[in-house]
Amino acid sequence: MLKGLWAELKSGSDIRGVAMPTDTEKVNLNDEVINSISNAFLIWLSRKLNKEISSLTISVGHDSRLSGNKIKTLMITAFSKHINKIYDCGLATTPAMFTTISELHCDAAIEITASHLPFNRNGFKFFINSGSLNSSDIEEILELAQNNEKPCSSSESTQAEIVNASLMEIYSEKLRQMICAEINSKENFTQPLSGLKIVVDAGNGAGGFYATDVLAPLGADISGSQFLNPDGNFPNHIPNPAEKRAMDSAVKATVENSADLGIIFDTDVDRAGVVSSSGKAINKNNLIAIASAIALNGNDGGTIVTDSVTSSNLKNFIESELKAKQCRFKRGYKNVINKAILLNQSGVNCPLAIESSGHAAFRENNFQDDGAYLVTKIIIFMVNLKKQGHTLESIIENLVQPAEEQEFRLKIKCKDFKNYGKDIIDKLNDFVSRKSGWQVDKDNCEGIRVNVNKGDTDGWFILRQSLHDPVIVLNVEGNKAGTVEIILNNLRSFFGSFSNLDTI
Hints:
By secondary structure, this protein is of the alpha/beta class. 48% of the residues are buried. Strands 1, 2, 3, 4, 5, 6, 7 and 8 form an eight-stranded mixed beta sheet that branches. A five-stranded antiparallel beta sheet has the order 17-21-20-19-18, with helices on one face. A four-stranded mixed beta sheet has the order 9-10-11-12, sandwiched between helices. The two termini are 34 Å apart. 36% of the residues lie in helices and 21% in strands.
């Protein structure tokens, strides 16, 4: 069982910690910890693949975080004493790192990243041939690190060959080839984006390459793109398409530059959102709707796996407009991906797993969540729609937009927060059963989801425990103005009975 520091470092199917001190946070991802994690990963990987440690080949890359290069150097130094070859991929995106397993014949790939978390955090995402690691894999690695287990010394001294890899050049070329092939322009095959203006907001993360190395060579006008330079201080906004300030920044740039499309990435480019030419933010439910329309082409009647907090309106859209099915599942990108894989294995046609945060994993792309791949599919879709006189917005014109929505993260102020949170949800179930016009939605896999329809009230809410933190999360949505406040007024009396819970 993980304890103390090692439990703190586990973040679902990733490892995340504090790499740089602040006034309120002490470093827990220090040199010694990084070395222990590196050693633990070698032991775990050797056992997983049934392969001698000395014969392993591993690739390592990092996003734009200030601590990334230092952590990479420490990790490579630890690996170099024991394994065969290391590819130093430098600044790289998380999805690109996965491709090193096939492109560079690596046994594993590691991206040093903390996704959208504050500048002082960092961590690791690990990949093997089957994809990103599961939560149970991360627990095993951290248990090995906790026990300070080290690779056995070889009878012969080992010094890894370290190769500098131009990974992003390889990755960019693949995306360019994909766009050319799928648009298949008879007039201009090699520059199919000529005449299009596309604005990219990389948020000073690792996504700037998409504008300069993918779009521009294909003829797109990328003027107006912003924050393309990697800067781990994130001086303009946190790179996070699910965050309002970040999306507002992308919308503003798209509108001011009269662009045909706006694109926004998170720090390590495994998530994305887009903006229509009119300035409509296509993220969250809108993004899922567009991605679903793309994925269902050739997969009529298929099933789309989403996370649990998607709108009821989205479910209606997928079923009525796309003639498909939606499977709501637990939050966490790895959870929805694993669910989609299991559905396909059981004979269900499931071409897409996608979270409202912007994680999208297409079956055709080995169920890897890849923000650059997602926007590439959207660009191809947009160009082909334009040929038919349609726009991206026309695809979702029948998706009902909520009048209002809010999210609250309520802190649980006791040590046994998981059982305390479970008790809140259990008692809420009883509370709802006594409310007229409130009905528990059975199509739900975590927490409790409730539909509220009474008089002028039309909406829903979901209450669920955070995957990792002592927090219970409330999402409320209303199709009529005033619905959210009516729901909240009813819930305040309920939450008020729990002394160790924040109020709304």
